[in-house]
Design brief:
The protein is α/β, with parallel strands linked by helices. It contains 15 helices and 21 strands. The protein folds into 2 domains: 198 residues, Flavin prenyltransferase-like (Rossmann fold, 3-Layer(aba) Sandwich); 223 residues, 3-Layer(aba) Sandwich (Rossmann fold). The structure holds cytidine-5'-triphosphate (CTP). The site of cytidine-5'-triphosphate has 16 residues, from helix 13, strand 16 and helix 14.
């Protein structure tokens, strides 16, 4: 049986952070799937893992520095930048991301990343505050704009006893993202960073060719403590179907998704998040976009406090759970004076008075169109595979569609949005 990454050559750039130890496991995962892995360690990475360990696991020599003369004579940085099918940066530290975003070439890793035309996947890992800092988010947006793929970071407890996005994606997730990237990369004509965007020749000519589309999907998880969270029944099926349809229509699609159990749609850049606040940050980082579709079932409230340790039963009555309101992502983006996507579409999940509530919602949220659906338990929409939607316009007009499979709803919605963008 051929393995999914059989004979694919990966240059693995290991950045300097506590998560560097997971890069060793990543080498194993990639090799299990058939890839040949050539490790390149930054100076910082070598504080956490040794080139010897990386080389032993890879079965290849590990590269370390631009000024290692023996290495330069053996294999120059330009050759390193070309002699692979893809480059994976894991962990991508704040500093490596900054160097990539600004085109800095002060060490071997940065030089190779600047000199390459190969598809690049980064797996960021850093302290949550560093991740959320506007400078890092700016760099992230720049890198995405350059066609760099991103996997993670995940949310969870951090080395510094903080909680939030910043943990390196799991090695298996990174290996999955490598497979997706290589499956979508165009053959080596033109620049790798364009190939990394996942456009296919067929899609490049679709009704959304050249457009950038942002989709939110899935539920959010709002942590109570490290083991408990508040969530809802959204499966992400409708949002994911819309993202898949947009990619098939030729768009560059960024899908910001809460935790779901369904596969990533093909040809789409997925940004996994857990909380509403992380979703808002990821959405803002993904802008600009021509079209933004907010299909996620965002938790309206989160616990006022997330405990760093598991809350224990101590025999007395359970502590009341105080909640605070989450930011409204749709209203925030629709209300932007600068950089508002041309077409902003919201969803309305209602259990009663669907149309009346949807009409009120469109005004309250400031979006251009609402896709309203009845999510009463009897209909089985939440978590199910079919959907009955009503399109509600700003002027209150309503168009009711028959009950359709969510994939078909996704395709029809995308056709409609493409016509609205390009009448
Ligand atoms: N939405 C959002 N951010 C939130 C809440 C909702 O972006 N914090 C978006 C959803 O993605 C959807 C739309 O707003 O596109 C409406 O979501 P819905 O849950 O139906 O409405 P709510 O704003 O939560 O209002 P209510 O709970 O009163 O129905």
């Amino acid at each position: 049986m051929t393995r999914p990454l059989q004979n694919r050559r990966i240059l693995l750039v290991i950045g300097g952070g506590i998560a560097a130890y997971k890069a060793l496991d990543l080498i194993r995962r990639l090799r299990e799937r058939g890839a040949q892995v050539r490790p390149l360690l930054t100076k910082g990475a070598q504080e956490f893992v040794t080139p010897l360990a990386a080389a032993a696991l890879a079965g290849e020599r590990a590269h370390t520095d631009l000024f290692d003369r023996a290495e330069e004579a053996d294999i120059g940085h330009i050759k390193l930048a070309r002699d692979a099918d893809a480059i994976v940066v894991a962990p991508a530290t704040a500093s490596l991301m900054a160097r990539m975003a600004t085109g800095d070439s002060s060490d071997l890793a940065a030089t190779v990343l600047l000199a390459t035309t190969l598809p690049i996947l980064i797996a960021p890992a850093m302290n949550v505050r560093m991740w959320q800092h506007p400078a890092t988010q700016r760099n992230l947006a720049t890198l995405r704009g350059d066609g760099v793929r991103v996997v993670g970071p995940n949310e969870g407890a951090m080395a510094e006893a903080e909680f939030g996005p910043g943990r390196l994606a799991e090695p298996a997730e990174i290996a999955d993202a490598v497979e997706t990237m290589l499956a979508e990369a165009r053959p080596a004509s033109g620049f790798g960073f364009l190939a990394g965007r996942g456009a296919t020749a067929e899609a490049a000519s679709g009704p959304l060719a050249g457009r950038r589309v942002l989709v939110t999907s899935g539920p959010t998880h709002e942590p109570i403590d490290p083991v408990r969270y508040l969530a809802n029944r959204s499966s992400g099926r409708q949002g994911h179907a819309i993202a898949a349809a947009a990619a098939a229509a030729g768009a560059t699609v960024i899908l910001v998704s809460g935790p779901v159990a369904i596969p990533h749609p093909p040809g789409v850049q997925v940004v996994p998040v857990e909380t509403a606040r992380a979703m808002l940050a990821a959405v803002e980082a993904a802008l600009p976009a021509d079209l933004a579709i907010f299909a996620a079932a965002v938790g309206d409230w989160r616990p006022a406090e997330t405990r760093a340790s598991k809350i224990k039963k101590d025999g007395s009555a359970p502590a009341p759970l105080a909640l605070v309101e989450n930011p409204d992502i749709l209203a925030t983006i629709a209300g932007r004076s600068a950089g508002r996507p041309r077409l902003v579409v919201g969803f309305a999940a209602e259990t009663d008075r669907v149309l009346e509530n949807a009409r009120a919602k469109i005004a309250r949220k400031g979006c251009d169109l609402i896709v309203a659906n009845d999510v009463s338990p009897a209909g089985g929409v939440m978590g199910g595979t079919a959907n009955t939607v009503h399109l509600v316009g700003r002027d209150g007009t309503v168009e009711t569609w028959p009950t359709l499979d969510k994939d078909e709803v996704g395709r029809r919605l995308i056709q409609r949005f493409a016509r609205l963008l390009d009448p």
